[in-house]
Amino acid sequence: MFAYYLRLGLRSLRRNPLLTLLMVVAIGFGVAASMTAYAVLRATSNNPIPQKSSQLFAPQIDNAGPPFTAENDGEPSDLMSYIDTMALMQAHRAQRQTALYSIGVSIMPADAAQLPFQVPSYAGYADTFAMFDIPFLYGSGWSAAEDQSRAAVAVIGRQLNDELFHGANSVGRNIVLDGHSYRIVGVMNDWNPQPVFYDVHSTKGFTDATQLFIPFTHAIDLKIPAAGVDLCNVTADAGWDAWLHSECTWINYWVELPDRSSVTAYRNYLQGYAAEQQRAGRFKWAPNIRLRNVTQWLDYEQVVPPESKISLLISLGFFVICLVNTVGLLLAKFMRRAPEIGVRRALGASRRSIYAQFLVEAGAIGLSGGVLGVLMTGAGVLGIGLVFDPSIARLATLDLSLAGLTLGVAVFATVLAAFYPAWRAARVQPSWQLKSS
Fold this sequence. Notes:
51% of the residues lie in helices and 14% in strands. The chain contains 19 helices and 12 strands. Strands 1, 2, 3, 4, 5, 6, 7, 8, 9, 10, 11 and 12 form a 12-stranded mixed beta sheet that branches.
C-alpha cells in the first residue's frame, strides 16, 4: 500500500507544480538555515576528548584573594602560578600530571633561503602525551627522566614534519628553535582537539593544531616567556626569577584522576594545600579551590560562542515559520481534492487510508525539501566565515551525519506539519461531496 500511496502522492505533486515548488523551497530554506546554525553549535560544543573527558581535571587555587575573586564571582584564576605548579608537581598526588604554557619560539629551517617561522607550540611535561591520548606517527614522547635532566628534546606535529622533512621519519634528527638545537624524539600524527581544552585561556578554545612540544623544565631553564595570556602584576624589568616567584598566574595545569575516589582525594589535597599556605602566611584568606573535568571546564569557560546559540534559535524560529506556511499550503492542496476524497470514501476507503495517503505525499515533499536543504546547507557551511571567526568557521563541515540529519528533520517536520491538513481531509463527508458534484 505504501508504494500505491506514493504513486498517488507523486501524481498529485505533478498536478500542482507551483504549489509543490513553494512547499519544497520553504522546507529547504528552513531546514538549511537550522542545520547550518546547528553545524556551528555542534562544532563549538564538541567534546574534544570523549574517551577521557571525565578523567582529566583542571585544578584551580586562589592565590590572589578577595580583590580578584570579588570581580570574578568568587572564582580563582583559570591559570596557575609557578610556585603552586612546582608544589603540585613535586607532591605528585595524581596518576598523571602536567603543566603547560604556550611559547613563541621561532623555527629555523635547515635551508638558509627559508625564513624562520612560528607554529603553535607548548612547553609541557612527559605525561602530556599519555594524558591527552596524543597519537604518534613516528617515535614517542620524551620520558620523565628527560624532564628531570632538562633535556633539549622535542616532539613535532605531522604538518611541521612534512614541511621540514618532507614527511620522512625525523626521529633522531635535530630542529633549531631560537638558535638552540633540539633532538626530535617523536612525530605526532594528526591531533587537533577542538575546542582546545588544555589551553582555553589564551586560545579562547579554538586555534590551529599544536605542532611543537618541548620540556617545561628546559623552557624554564632557557627563560622562554609565556606567549599566551598571563595574569601578572610584576613588570618585565623585575627579572625572570622575580616573575617565577611572584603570584603571577600563567600556567595551565592538568591532572588525570581515573575514578571518583581519586577525585575526592585530590580535591582534599588541594584544600589541605591551600590551608597550609594560609597557615604559612602566604594566603590571607580561606582556602578557595576548584577541580573541574574537561566538560565542566569548557562549560565554566563558556567556550561555546553565544552568537552560535542565538543564531540557532533564530534559524529554528525561521524554520517554524516555514512549517506554518507549509501547513497552510498543504491544507489548501488537500482540501481542493475534497471531491476525490468523497468518491474514495464512498467506494470503501477508510479514514486511515486517507491519512496514510496524504502523509506519504507530505513525506515526499519533505524528502524533496530535504535534498534541497542539504545543498543549501553545504552552501551555508561554506559561507559561515562571513559571520563567525575563521577559527570557528572552519570547524563546521557538512558530513554524512549532518546530511542524514537534514533529510530526516525535513521529512519528519513536513509529515508532522501535514497531520492537521490530513485530519481535515479525512473528515470530509462523502455524501456532501457526492451531492455537490
